[in-house]
Queue: 2 jobs
Job 1
Amino acid sequence: MPPNKPGGALGALNSLIRGGARSAARVTRGRSGPSLDLAAGAAGGLLQESFVRRLERLNLMTRGLVSVGIAGEHRSRRHASSAEFSDFRRYVPGDDFRRIDWNAYARLDGVFLKLTEAKVEVPIHLLVDCSESMNWGSPNKLAFARRLAAAIGYLGLAQFDAVSGAGFSDRLYERFPSVRGKNGATRLLAYLDAAPVGPRSNIERCVAEYCEQAARGGIAFLISDLLSDDSWQAGVLQFLRHGTDVVVIHVVSPQELRPPMDGEIELVDSESGDVVELIVGEEARRTYEARATEWCAGVEDYCQRSEVGHLLLETTVELEEIFLNRMRRRRIVK
């Protein structure tokens, strides 16, 4: 299985063959062609009107009924005076007599209250890995992550949910404060575009710090290549301990799964600057690709055993495909 901390296909292949430097993200000379780095891009590029209209017809799903919040679009364990019927219960002294169902009284010869489901908001937490290993690939992983976070955030805002989040690398960036309603989309996009590229990622540490600052509950989307200096699994457990549902979105570039390398090459670690020279042949590529597939399968297996959501996404996948098909199949949206 590839190590937990390669910063892209080149770094992982180097670890596989030589066991040396980590996080190589570009080829500087040899027969592999030019650098694969691209600019990180802007989150706002996703907001074509046709896609936004489709997003607004979707709803984020929670694992159960929501027990906290105020006016929103999700069902709650609380009962209130809304239009959606839930149940009956017998009247007891002190109940609001205006909620007595007189039709039930006529049928059942008893005094009953009509209970309805409250509609509440759900806190949506967006954690976006902005480490140097994410700023790599074609298409660029960080640009993809920013657009994906922006789309998820807009979907939550369209449902009147409370959307907050933070970028992170080796530290947690200043938190994006909770906003509600579609008017908050511009602020969210500006935050995502301004999040700087940092060095190595520390998922466990940054999630722990975020959980200390943020409200409990809701849904957390961890968007990362999972190439962390510490345990990303421990970061997931931090959210679960705070009563927060988790969706792990594992972002990979095509070059990480199928590295286009051959012959004598030089690898440069995108996070440490270390340089390794090696020779790559067909057998090494096949071995690497098998181990990369095994690693991705291991991530999915952990998420299934931990009962958290999971999506493995190559950066070539269109947002429409992600939201309209893949997220629906995984019951992340409906």
Job 2
Amino acid sequence: MNIRYLLLVSFTAFALLYYQQNYANTQPTPTAAPVTQPNNNKTTTFLEQDKDKDKNTTEAASDEDVNRFTNTIALIKDFYVKSVGEKNLLDDAIRGMVAGLDPHSEYLDKEAYKTLLMTTSGAFGGVGIEVTPEYGILKIVTPIDDTPAAKAKIKAGDYIVAVDGKLVSEMTLQDAVEKMRGKAGSPITLTILRKGEKAPLVFKLKREIIHIASIKSKMLDNNFGYIRISQFQEPTGKLLQEAIQSLQAKNPGGLKGIILDLRNNPGGLLETAVQVTNVFLDSQNMTHKFNNTIVYTEGRLPEAQYHAKATGKDMLHGAPIVVLINGGSASASEIVAGALQDYGRALIVGATSFGKGSVQTVIPLDKTRALKLTTALYHTPSGRIIQNIGIVPDVQIDDLTVVKNKTDEDLAMIEPIKEYQLKNHIGKTEAPNSLILNREDLLLAQTDFQLFEALKILRTIYMLDTVSAKNKPIIAQPTPAATTASAVTH
């Protein structure tokens, strides 16, 4: 069979597939309820920004374009230094076309599709990092808790430039990710660029089977709870409810408040983010603000519209919440933080989040391959756009390091110097019992400064709520007798 005819047929079939996936009304999409969107000018403006680009990119391919495509493949087959199969060339063509759309759209071959299904279930092999392509290398979105990367102090925002000495710029995203995976116990070397460091950092790690525990919880002092969500997986919503019930069981008098830690959480399943948000909102007492919306999406096609509403009951009964975020908080994390911020249900603390506010839909091509395409953008209940902007915290707290030493001088970094700490001071030599900070506070400040500051804020919110409740005027209700007498008088 003539090679050019074969390639032309292949290209035509591919073009038809591309048309069906992007324009046909019969394309497979996730089931979603019709959305009633707020009247938001920002949304319309944002989606109209690329209209001029769309005019150019939606032009039909000409015969000249088809010839250029087929000629390229023919020339590669005839003149490239190594023999390349037509199947590999077509796979690479698909991969390159999808990769040119945005950083999160991807062609999933057999191995990549299998890996995607594995990671959403909560167990996979590797060093434990979430990455995204940027500047031709890999930017670390977040190191996952309790993995080799996290233990080695690799940070969100670091850039991987080489894996085992091979430059990432010479690999595809899939190749780089596959190279970081391997047998548990096998060594791997990552060369990393970090802001503020003059020279590349070299990390020698050992791969592990990564088991992601998406929920961790513990008690902090004075009946304040701490809940860490590391990733939004299928069971995360149920595990969160169980964690809250466990903390409440340890405190019969009721929790004074919780810190919800979403730092370095790269996201996960949209439905799980909705379930988590539902745990903290009382749908019966929201006064229909923002139409009880938790999140909604907007895309080009009606099938890309999604609208989730609050339907739950606040498990904390109004107890204050502080949500911790940072530059590694992305996607589903930003949905939760944005919704709780819009409703005033939580104070958002930390650093501005990653800004990944796009929806990826996995569309199977056959039984073993799929396309992961960006089909819509997330919006918070008030209509704010997350993409490229992120969630800006109500209180900005940098991730500082408190230096440890054997004297009280280390306290000076986190609270003002007191009289008793001055040399040759008059009076008692020991610290008074009324110090705001105790040794447990100091230890927390040394190990996790942002969490230490979040706890101080949570204490303050609880104290203000308590004072406000005590000072609230009591309105006396008239007794039945007084009501009757008043009626007779009139």
